[in-house]
Amino acid sequence: FEEACGVLQTGLGVAEGRDALRDMSHKLPRRSDRRPGGLDGHESPEPSGPSALDLAERQVLAERAFLALRRALGSLSARDRIMLRLHVEDGLSVAEVARSLGEEQKALYRKRDALYKKLRLDLEAEGIRQGDA
Question: Which CATH number, 3.40.109.10, 3.90.950.10, 3.40.50.20, 1.10.10.10, labels domain 51-133?
Answer without folding.
Answer: 1.10.10.10
